[in-house]
Request: fold
Amino acid sequence: MSKSGKLTLDPVLWLATGFGAGKMPRAPGTFGTAVAVPLVMLLQPLGLWIYSVITLGLVLVGIVICGKAAERMGVHDDPSIVWDEIAGYFITMLAVPSSAAALLFGFGLFRLLDISKPWPIRWLDRHVSGGLGIMLDDVAAAIVANLILRAIIPASW
Reply:
């Protein structure tokens, strides 16, 4: 979708906006994260190794996609760029036992950390530019969320 909200055929913008989810008028990051939930549910059962490789791929591809999207939009980290939230949720749920409660709690925890940006997440957001900068604050928020989840969720949950 373009800034006007119309459908775009630009594959970079289509991916960067989470298949259009980032064009929602309110809470685009939350809608972008929501795109990741069914994908995580489908991919977690494939095993930790495959899930980890896919997650790493999402992050690495995201650096390029988010950087190119920001250049095309002329705005660093436009709110409609939500690929970073998709990758962030994948990291949040890495090696976390799969359950509805874990998926929901992980979603909320990741969004809380991504929105509030406590230190050092805020520092990364303000001091790293380009595609790496767009991705890095979400990766940091996701790592913190993941560590919290793994510390409090029992393996059998």
